[in-house]
Amino acid sequence: MRRILPALLAAPLLIAAAPAPTPVPGGLIGTLDQGRYTCELPGDASGPIRVAAKEFDFSVVHGSSYRDQNRQRGSYLKTGDLVQMTGGPLKGLKLRMISDGFLRRIESNGLNGEMRCVLGTPGNS
Fold first, then answer.
1. Quick one: average pLDDT of 92-100?
2. Whole-structure pTM over 0.85, yes or no?
3. Alpha-carbon span 64 to 30, nearest angstrom
4. Which band of pLDDT confidence, cut at 50, 70 and 90, is reported for residue 106?
5. pLDDT digit string (tens) for 13-45?
6. What's the burial of 49, exposed, middle or buried (CB within 10 Å: 0-12/13-18/19+)?
7. Residue 74: how many CB atoms within 10 A of its CB?
8. Alpha-carbon gap, residue 89 to 36, rounded angstroms
9. 102, 61, 62: which is closest to 81 by C-alpha?
10. Cβ–Cβ < 8 Å for 107, 92
11. What b/e sequence results for 93-120 when a residue is b if at least 16 CB atoms lie within 10 Å of its CB, and e otherwise?
């Protein structure tokens, strides 16, 4: 017992001194803010200022789960600023988080595309 007690008392100090684990490749894992994300493309000077892309609209419902406009469930993975739909109707869609509640589609060439998805608020939903 006399040998065990000093080891037990020292254990928290050793754990506290250990270096922090390195983040996963791509950045820290996280989640999006819950709510409805409305997606749109820019318009032009001869027409509307934006064109709805309703087929990409989704709502984050809990943790890493979303529902599309037809209420079909799916999942996503957020690492760093990258959001990738990993299951469900939007599987394969990649988005980059520009700021809280503002996402931009990542095209097949890896660059930001024109489509954006914006989290609605009570004033603009």
1. 97
2. no
3. 8
4. very high
5. 555 666 666 666 778 999 999 999 999 999 888
6. exposed
7. 19
8. 16
9. 102
10. no
11. bbbbbeeeeebbbbeeeeeeeebbbebe
Q: What is the largest CA-CA distance in the chain?
A: 84
Instruction: Indicate the residue type of 86.
Output: T
Q: Could you tell me which residues are beta bridge partners of residue 78?
A: 30, 83
| Cβ(98)–Cβ(104) below 8 Å | yes
Contact, 38 vs 117, CB < 8 A?
Answer: yes
Residue type, 15: I
Instruction: Tell the residue number behind the tokens 């789960």, with chain if given.
Output: 65
- Residue 38: which H helix or E strand, with range? strand 35-42
Amino acid at 31: T
Query: Locate tokens 């890493």: which residue?
Result: 64
pLDDT score recorded for residue 11: 57
Which residue shows structure tokens 């922090």? Answer: 20
Strand partners, 87: 75
